[in-house]
Design a protein that fits this description.
- Helix 1 (about 20-25) crosses helix 2 (about 30-40) and helix 6 packs antiparallel against helix 7.
- The strands form 2 sheets. Strands 5, 6, 7, 8, 9, 10, 11, 12, 13 and 14 form a 10-stranded mixed sheet that branches.
- The protein is globular and about 60 Å long.
- It has 3 domains: about 1-65, RNA-binding S4 domain (Structural Genomics Hypothetical 15.5 Kd Protein In mrcA-pckA Intergenic Region, Chain A, Roll); about 85-155, Pseudouridine synthase, CATH 3.30.2350; about 170-320, Pseudouridine synthase.
- With about 325 residues, the chain is α+β, with helices and mostly antiparallel strands.
- The chain is built from 7 helices and 14 strands.
- Strand 9 (about 185-195) and strand 10 (about 200) form a beta hairpin.
- Helices cover about 20% and strands about 30% of the residues.
Length: about 325
């Protein structure tokens, strides 16, 4: 389930707590509203505020709340194989495959990363949210790569705070349409819900939350580029939106133009391959965090998946510049 809000506080709601306001406005539990505020997913006049913040008439409240399930229903352990990059008593670092949903939601309640984690690490059932235990950040269903999960409540609290304050490093690799003119650059925009399709995001907005992505070219071809992208902020679909809105959608992206763009590929062999991709060519390659207990800086990398390797090899063969 995903619910969004973008409203101006009226006089009848003056001095109401933020979590109470969110709960009433969106029809969710107060606990879920409070957690969303704690995780920085509720903004008042563009700033993250605590659940206890008192609203005033005329303030703008924006929120994005996801992950609530029916009351009393919690995910159960399911034996699903996982690729583990690292584990200790506080954290586990997972190499998530494309196609695996991170946590239960509308239409995705049985085969998720959370169900698999509960089977292998049953202690996380009491860590963080009951609906998405241990989860401190997410990857889209069709994006592969590195994720960290908390195994203890102390680690969970520390990691949530670190991600909220951007005290981490997330580096992605993507194959996008178009041969980039520059070697590197920065995309810095506002980001908000798409004005016509509320399930999507857009950076072509006058206001919203700041979104910053740094990029550099690894390789160029006639009609594609292989990029390394570093997130300076962590907005929903940030890389996919930024590249699409600058005219370079991620190859295979089913929501942001990467699928339709396949019709423009001149080479029939490449065109056929791209049409059969089935997901966006986006991979969370590197994650850097400060260990929540030891304070040690740690970095984890995930090998590029086979579908991306195969497309790179094909482009090297067919579209070398």
């Amino acid at each position: 389930m995903e619910k969004t809000l973008d409203v101006i506080v009226d006089s009848g709601q003056d001095d109401v707590r933020l979590d109470v306001f969110l709960s009433r406005s969106l029809g969710v539990t107060r606990a879920l509203a409070a957690r969303s505020a704690e995780e920085g997913r509720a903004l008042v006049d563009g700033r993250a505020r605590k659940p206890s913040f008192r609203l005033k008439t005329g303030m703008r409240v924006e929120a994005e709340i996801t992950g609530e399930k029916e009351a009393g229903v919690r995910p159960e352990a399911v034996d699903i194989p996982l690729s583990i990059l690292y584990e200790d008593r506080d954290i586990v670092v997972v190499d998530k495959p494309a196609g695996l949903v991170v946590h239960p939601g509308a239409g995705e309640n049985r085969v998720t990363l959370v169900h698999a984690l509960l089977h292998q690490y049953p202690e996380i059932a009491g860590v963080g949210s009951p609906e998405r235990p241990g989860i401190v950040h997410r990857l889209d269903k069709l994006t592969s790569g590195v994720m960290v999960v908390a195994r203890s409540s102390r680690a969970y609290d520390a990691l949530v705070a670190a991600f909220k304050e951007h005290r981490h490093t997330r580096v992605y690799r993507a194959i996008c349409y178009g041969s980039m003119d520059e070697q590197s650059g920065r995309i810095e925009t506002f980001m908000d819900r798409h004005p016509k399709d509320r399930k999507k995001m857009s950076s072509k907005v006058a206001q919203g939350r700041q979104a910053v992505t740094d990029w550099r070219v690894i390789r160029r071809w006639e009609q594609f580029s292989f990029l390394e992208l570093t997130l300076q902020t962590g907005r929903t679909h940030q890389i996919r939106v930024h590249l699409a809105d600058m005219g370079h959608p991620v190859a295979g992206d089913p929501e942001y133009g990467g699928k339709r763009r396949a019709n423009t590929i001149a080479d029939p062999v490449v065109r056929s391959r791209v049409r059969r991709l089935g997901r966006q060519m986006l991979h969370a390659w590197k994650l850097g965090i400060t260990h929540p207990e030891t304070g040690q800086w740690m970095e984890f990398t995930s090998e590029m998946p086979e579908d991306m390797k195969a497309l790179v090899a094909l482009l090297d063969e067919r579209q070398a510049c």
